[in-house]
Amino acid sequence: MNPASSLPLEGIRILAIEQMQAMPFATQLLAHLGADVVKIEHPVTGDSGRTAAPTIRDVDGRDVGATYLRNNLGKRSVGVNLKDARGVELVKRLAPSYDVVTENFKPGTLSRLGLGYEVLAAANPRIVYASVSGFGSLRSSPYASWPAYAVVAEAMGGFYDFRPEPGRLPNIGVAGAMGDISSSLFIAIGILAGLQYRDRTGVGQQVDVAMMDAMMAMMDMVPFNPSVGITDNSLAAWPGICTCFRASDGLFVMQVGREHQFERMAHAIGHPEWLDDPRFATREGWRDHLDGVVRPAIEEWAAKRTKVEASRALADEGIVAGPCFGAEDLVNDPHVKSHDMVLSVPRPHADAAIHVVGNPIKLSKSLDRPAQRWPTLGQHTREILRSDLAMDDAEFEALLSDGVISPD
User: Fold this and answer.
1) Confidence (pTM)
2) Strand partners, 102
3) Is 180 a catalytic residue?
4) Which one of 36, 47, 180, 408 is the catalytic residue?
5) Residue 356 is inside which H or E element, if any?
6) What is the pLDDT of residues 195-238, one digit of tens each?
7) Which of 74, 223, 309, 384 has an alpha carbon 20 to 30 Å from 90's alpha carbon atom?
């Protein structure tokens, strides 16, 4: 095998009983790294992400939602009705052929269906069973029964308590579905750890991530700061400069928190006299005179430059700065292009492409897998049931006619 054509997770098979984003983003990332991800979906409605607005009309004539489009590249879809005992039995029969089973339903849901870890591990002790939920499955929580979307995990994990702005409510969803994406990243790490443990010991285990815990890990300063004497979480309390400034074509961000950085910044924008000005003798002074003195000077200097040019001029002097990019900037940016971080997937019934974020993990000996579109609902049902279960046409047609599985 050509090492450049081999991805590290080739040969790993994942049976994904998943919905929306908190698990699908993780399994998509693992698919980018070579895993074969087979997704179990309801044969009529599919993953609930298919109904998330906005939608587009897919090649099979069904509408498919934005959440599904972003989180299911390179997967295969099997339509199975888990509300039918025969559908549950099909998944039980499939599971021994897989290394990993993933789910992100409310704790106890799959166990009540007969698809919990203990049941599947009894048939396949090497299985790694990965779960994501709002408050976890392996340990007790007073919130265990609560439904949880990303916004709940973000709020309860401290995200909206960090650097509040006086006089206004937190900007909900300011970081997109951070609660979902952060949970996905942690469960992906957990799955890889579970596979390593299995390879070393011969047995798998259940891997569990609570979305609240994931957000606490992302916002670790909220519980940490008071313990070391920092009682004001607001950005205004931070001694230094950390904000956006306006250039000729938009905003750029700059952070100056050290004396040598302030010195370089003052020289770069043509105000070396600030270094002898008592108002700027301390970091608190930089902050306190930001809007009255510093901002007008920086924005006057930046008005002759684009946001990229201003950032580059500052970065060349060792000053931390960068442009605030939007969608058009990202699609056309040379870094994004060289890193394959926007994947262009053909849009059904249109000449334009859908832009989906690529794989941020780069490997020295493995090339990125070409972008593969999302599956249509149940597209691979017959293929998987034949290859994994040696199902004959008679059984397939009987299950199909009873609505247990979806047509391919």
Assistant:
1) 0.92
2) 16, 130
3) yes
4) 180
5) strand 353-357
6) 999 999 999 999 999 999 999 999 998 888 888 887 776 655 67
7) 74
